[in-house]
Each structure stands twice: as C-alpha cells, then as structure tokens.
Specification:
Blueprint (H helix, E strand, L loop, with lengths): L1 H21 L17 H10 L12 E6 L5 H14 L3 E6 L4 E6 L8 E9 L4 E9 L11 H12 L1
Antiparallel strand pairs: 1-5, 2-3, 3-4, 4-5
C-alpha cells in the first residue's frame, strides 16, 4: 500500500512537471505589434559587418533580410503573406500601417506548432525584413530547424 501511494505521488508530480514544461511557449500576444519595435539598425550592422551573423544559424528562430532594392509596401505585404501561406501559416494579423504580419500554423509530423512574425522597413535605398518564429507547445525549443529562415528564403526568392 505504501509503495502504491509513493507511485501515485511521484506519478502526479511527474505529470505536473510534464504539464509545466509543455505549456505554450509562444502566443500571438508575445510578438511585437509593429516594425517600430524591431531594431533594424542592429541587424543591418550585423549582416554588413559579419559573414555569418549569429542569428542565421540553423538552430536559430530568427532571420534577417536586407535587399538593396525598394519594394512597394503593398507588394511586400503580399509577398510575405504568400510565403507564410506556402509554409502552412494562417495569417492572424497583417498591417501596412504597422509593417507587420503574424501567422500561426499547427502541429506537423516532425515540427511543433509555431507562430511567426514578419516585420519590414522600407528606406530610400533598401528594404529590411526581420522574421521571428517561436514554437507554441514545448519548452525544449522543438525541432532544430529554422522556420524563420525557411519563410525568409521564400520571401527573398520572390523579391
């Protein structure tokens, strides 16, 4: 009887620990609402000063694009929405005014559900795009693939 009680207490503790570790790590509300909240200057300096900035590593959850090409806001918004759609995301918010698009996609065979925010800034001589992806289920970080980069490569190909 005593062993059974210990097992139940341990089992319940294990379930509580598992639940605490597996609750959502990202929510739509966690993402910036506007491109004004992104430090494009820092990312631009990193990409222009380093051959391989730290945030482009395959285990990362972010990606930055800088093109010496000016693109219309509406065109860029359309390209971003299409790229997210091709990767299975449903657009949850999109704003030309805030220069931001946030999408969410469900669980895949080998990937956790995720939320991706894409933010852009158009200057006189270049277009800057910052992409950030976070999984929603697991505190471990999930699979080690850069979903932000996958979306970014589709955007780059369309530009």
């Amino acid at each position: 009887m005593h062993i059974f009680r210990i097992f139940l207490q341990t089992g319940v503790s294990f379930l509580c620990l598992t639940y605490c570790c597996c609750v959502g790590t990202a929510k739509l509300s966690d993402f910036p609402k506007s491109a004004a909240d992104i430090d494009f200057t820092r990312y631009s300096a990193e990409i222009n000063n380093n051959k391989t900035p730290f945030w482009t590593l395959e285990t990362s959850a972010e990606y930055y694009i800088e093109k010496a090409k000016v693109v219309a806001d509406t065109t860029l918004l359309s390209v971003i929405e299409k790229a997210l759609g091709e990767k299975g995301y449903k657009i949850k918010s999109a704003s030309l005014e805030n220069k931001a698009v946030v999408g969410k996609r469900g669980l895949r065979f080998n990937e956790w559900s995720s939320v991706t925010g894409v933010y852009f800034k158009i200057l006189n001589d270049k277009t800057q795009i910052y992409i950030s992806t976070h999984i929603t289920q697991d505190a471990t970080g999930g699979a080690r693939n850069n979903l932000a980069k996958k979306v970014g490569l589709l955007i780059e190909a369309a530009l």
